[in-house]
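User: quick one, sequence for these tokens?
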């Protein structure tokens, strides 16, 4: 996907096409030429990161990218935020609440920021990796959201860790966790 305001996206695509034709011997250029039909041009109001959400929800773009990872992650984040507003006993964020829900086997969908995997402390990183593996092993879904994407940036504002639960846990709502992992 190439998106942006004005004619910049068309100019970029034209440049990429011209360069790939010049460099036909290059493996990356060959791959680009073979997959040229998959490139989607989209209009965005600005060239800044927050426009990604605007582009991904555009009626012109949505049908072409329906099954991509970015769309699935955005939908999962939207579902979490909706659940947080409508059924707060089934949506939790922060290491303490999410870990407590995990210990009860309640996590259906885990949202974790890629920034948590880049922590300098290898013990903490391993705990997050194990959490992801455990959720997937228990039949849940785990999404690692990029902090460069709009939904990942939203998640980072909520501690970088969130979960939609299989069943409500109202007793967790009132619990206060310090520290987390």
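Assistant:
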């Amino acid at each position: 996907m190439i998106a942006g305001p004005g004619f910049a996206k068309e100019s970029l695509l034209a440049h990429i096409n011209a360069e790939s034709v010049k460099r036909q011997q290059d493996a990356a250029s060959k791959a680009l030429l073979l997959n040229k039909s998959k490139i989607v041009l989209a209009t965005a109001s600005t060239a800044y990161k927050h426009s990604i959400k605007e582009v991904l929800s555009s009626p012109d773009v949505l049908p072409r990218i329906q099954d991509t990872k970015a769309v699935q992650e955005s939908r999962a984040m939207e579902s979490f935020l909706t659940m947080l507003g409508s059924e707060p006993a089934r949506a939790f964020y922060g290491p303490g609440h999410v870990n407590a829900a995990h210990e009860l086997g309640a996590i259906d969908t885990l949202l974790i920021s890629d920034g948590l995997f880049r922590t300098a402390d290898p013990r903490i990183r391993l705990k997050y990796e194990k959490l992801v593996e455990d959720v997937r092993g228990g039949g849940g879904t785990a999404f690692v959201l990029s902090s460069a994407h709009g939904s990942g940036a939203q998640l980072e504002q909520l501690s970088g860790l969130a979960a939609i639960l299989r069943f409500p846990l109202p007793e967790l709502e009132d619990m206060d966790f310090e520290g987390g992992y």
